[in-house]
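G.,

No rush on this.
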Amino acid sequence: MALARAWSVALIGVDGRAVEIEADIGAGLPGTKLVGLPDTGLREAKDRVRAAVRNSGQRWPDSNVTLGLSPANLPKDGSGYDLGIAAAVLAASGAVPAHKLLDTVLLGELALDGRVRPVRGVLPALLAARKAGYRRAVVAVESLAEGALVAGLEVGGAERLTELIAWLADEGPLVRAEPQPGVDGVGTDVLDLADVAGQPEARWALEVAAAGGHNLLMTGPPGIGKTMLATRLPGLLPALGDDEALEVTAVHSVDGALSSEAPLVRVPPFVAPHHSISVAALIGGGSGLAAPGAISRAHRGVLFLDEAPEFGGERLAALRTVLEEGEVRIGRSKGWVRYPARFQLVLAANTCPCAPARETECQCSPAARRRYFAKLSGPLLDRVDLRVRMRPASSLSLAAEIDDLADSDAPGSAGGGETAPVGAGQVGAGEPTARVRDRVVAARERAAKRWSERGWRTNADVPGPALRREFALPAAVTRLLDRSLDRGAVTARGADRCLRIAWTLADLAAADEPDGDHVAAALEFRDRRVA
């Protein structure tokens, strides 16, 4: 009778937990039993592993083999345990030494011919292994670029099971992970804000949203530029920091959406689901332990809901708690799964169900219009910081914009030197993304410096109590906001969001703190009618 053990990692959302794989070869009729709450895919592992071992030139034990995965009460799914099961069985049968398995995590699926296939979630699994104190990890060669992102862990790759066997027997090396550079900034395919005709007020709102991490609602007739503006928001956002990039990459790793050439995600993601998406696909779900949804794929980026009222009350209501907490917790019979979901929400809506090109041609009754916008509930709109009503651009306004662009390229113009501070409603006509992004990055740097000791990244992250107490503004500055609260024009949550917007406006103006004009402009963004 012989016993050996190896180690792997179970993923519960983006959180990993070390799993001990025990192989016991004892007396009895030939057979293989797998215990420890495996799912269907994992129960089939014993057949995959047995074929892979035999096709790798090794002998499978001709006696009773019991495989135990501990903790036994932790649900385990997927095929990532194959490599660990094979190593434990081979060590228990004496085919390979077992000493290297003591501090090594094994992650990989085995093909029947012994090839090692990549699995999802390598990055969060290796981060959990490093936190648990493991020194080494073995993954599929295709996962090496992802494994190289985990500093302090020696990661090797195996293309076939025979390579792992040779490494365990000190007869050959594994392929070593080489650090892979991520994308350092905004990609070359970023859409330019200068493509949007007219809409200076909406462009200004987009700049404020980018500078402070605020949620945004744009309403207006179809074809007016709502989608064009939303798709240009990621180009205004700064590249993700190291910690943020790892958070986003971990979610994409679990989702299986990483690129092997540049696995570290540096560009804020942009996710735009169709309005027919299910609640489970939007929030996260699926059989067994839930998979990440669209809101988690948009973590540290932008979630754009075009034709927002068409999503329906159930899907939109599911976003309310997530917008406050920045994460989603999904309960299943097998346990709870947590995914990060701190994103900027951008909503776009037409002015009515019939959505004519000109509002004067609307055929909808007042009741139909109310029902249409009632899908955007009050509690959801209360969590949307900026609201913009967009108007059709006239031919005169477009001609003026062309003249502005021509003047901006002239010698001595603002386009050839530093840009003057831009105020609400005064954003430069046809400004390119690069110029606006410079102001956004500068504003975010000022905010990050101010909040760095508290761990907040943007003004949108600052909790309301801190804005009202530790960073309270003088009463003369907030007088207009206080009157709005007294009249019931804004809620207490809305007042906190007005203060966050005011701080963002101050950052864009390079001011030390907001003044009365900044608070008034923030309140105006909240009070605007959406229809």
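When you get to it, here's the other one too:
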Amino acid sequence: MSTSPEELQTQLAATTDSRERAIILVKLGMALSRIEPTEGLAYAEEAQKAARQLRDDITRAHALHAIACCHETLAQYQPALAAAQKARWLFQKRGDQIGEGTCLNAIAVIAHGMGDYPTGLSALAEAREIFTAQEDQPGLASAFNNTGMMYQELGNYPEALNAYLQALQINEGLGNEQLVGVNIGNVSNIYFYLGDNERSFQYDLRALEIARRLNDQYGIGHTLDNISSHHKTRGDYQAALDALTESLEIFRQMQAKRYESAILIKLGALHEQQQQPEAALEQYHAATTIAEAIGDANTLANAQAHIGMMHHKQGNYLLAIPVLNDAITTAEASANPRIVCETKRLIAESLAATGDHTAAFAQLQEHLVLLTELSSEQQRKSVAEAQARFDVERTEREREVLRLRNQHLEETMELRNKELTTLAMNLVQKNTFLQKLRKQTEQLAEEHPTAKLAMKALMREIAENLRGDDDWERFQQEFQHVHHDFIRRIASDHPKLTPTELKVCALLKVNLSNKEIANLLSISLRSIESHRYSIRKKMGLAGEISLAAYLAAV
């Protein structure tokens, strides 16, 4: 279970250790990144400075990731992207693949906010590969959830549903009920968009059950809001009213004023639909009061528009006109052209009903201009979404081609490695046979002095075959095909290595044993051990680091 910001602040006040303090500052930055991003940013930036002073790249990378998350919440996408990319580079530098995957997840969320869906989906594909390879199930679930979010925004609901369901399956396996509840809510939304209201309703009921079990008041309130919409669609207005009333009470207790005012408008609309105008107006006015108090212009404009519409429907045109004008002023200030457009139409109708046809015509003209602009904007958005979908599909095709190409290269490399190892072993076996033959020839020469002279030529030829460089040149030629610049890089990085030591390094690269290397190079096993010691010393390798493992990574 995650530590609360209050507990982290207590820990921060109690510690004097610089490194521990930096780590707690990072945790505070992340804990506040969604609820108090400005405060979280201050903690994360302090953590980054401390980590830089400590020369602790990993803690610094985590701090940069927290900075990116805070900027993203504040919709400051460019600094968010810069911080996330820097964090990724630091994680890569230190070989922390899970950290890199986490940064890719953050980059995708930032790209989503910027409307750059191809970049976001590409980052998520990389993240999923990393988390799968590292068997990091929580990271993989997060990547799938973000993938669903991306496809949902593109209107590709089948792909969104598939991604959300995979995230749900993973979190169910992990037993993380809180995230399961989030995933279920996402799945419910997709079924709703696909027109499967019954399945959407069942998922929302399940999400509510989980939220109640966890005593997640925020989750309960929002899920009840969704469930009320299902009841309303079914015509069960009392059940819808009960769900909204409970949701309203929860948000009031939480002092979540923004959500409270939004629920009040929905309650008003429900009362209005049931022909209860007085109750509807009461809810709309209550929402107006809250929205004004907290400075929520969008909700205020929405509530004012509903009040004006109610007066218009009741024929109270002189009451409707000033309220609708207020709604337009508020909506224009909050850049909400849809409310402005619809409200101007209502004002035009109200003015016409009062006999002021000139003013009504002017309002109607403005309404039509806005309607045309909104239609053009919707068309532009549709074209942009279609282009984004095309870009995503093209990126995915290119990624699949690249994956197949890399797979082919890996298979080719594996085959060449096997051939190289086979060649090395054949050369070892040949040298082993020649050494055995030389010993037998020497033994026969000793046992049969008369044949000694005749065998000298044979022994000389065997010795020349063992001392010759033909085998090494043949091996080196094949080695270069597989491990192109290995010997050159080793020689460049460690210029004190002798030619024989470079040969030993190459043979260790293909996993030959000391004995096999000794046979291939026609030197003693003790000499190979001495060469290995010298190589380690010249490379400055610590005792716990395997020479073979180090060379394998080069």
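The longest helix spans residues 357-447. The mean pLDDT is 85.

Enjoy the weekend,
O.
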